[in-house]
Design a protein that fits this description.
By secondary structure, the protein is α+β, with helices and mostly antiparallel strands. The chain is about 30% helix and about 30% strand.
Amino acid sequence: MAVLDILIHPDPRLKKPAAPVESVTPDLRRLADDMLTTMYDAPGIGLAAPQVGFMQRLIVVDCVKEEGAPPRPIVMLNPHVTWESDERSVYEEGCLSIPEQYGEVERPAEVEVSWQGLDMIGQSERFSGLWATCVQHEIDHLDGKLFIDYLRPLRRQMITRKMVKLKRERLRA
């Protein structure tokens, strides 16, 4: 399993909607494994295929944070929110494609998500807390939306300028 390069904002691929996964191939399985490896290496709690340059509706998440608790990696193909609570919650979100930048984002506190697993069998689960925030954040990536799109324009522009500078510095290194 390989650690993949994570695209850094601004990158036009991060703003494009991803195509549905039609079938599971050995390449797609390898991509899912590599995405989990990349997410854990970062370290992060979620990663969407567009963030590593693959424009398919595939996300991986694992929000287990308790010391000593077993990991709970979930691979979701074609995930979509089927229900959301009226209750809202605010989390300070970050993103592997926008390193070291954070912002408070308000989202539904609970969501029901349906998706297909790597066996293409449909699954559904209700998520709350950090899991709900994470899965909504990653599904947003599949629709070409970033957490900074929820922030005020001035804050969004400031973060984007920092990312442009970071990308320039990385090119020079």
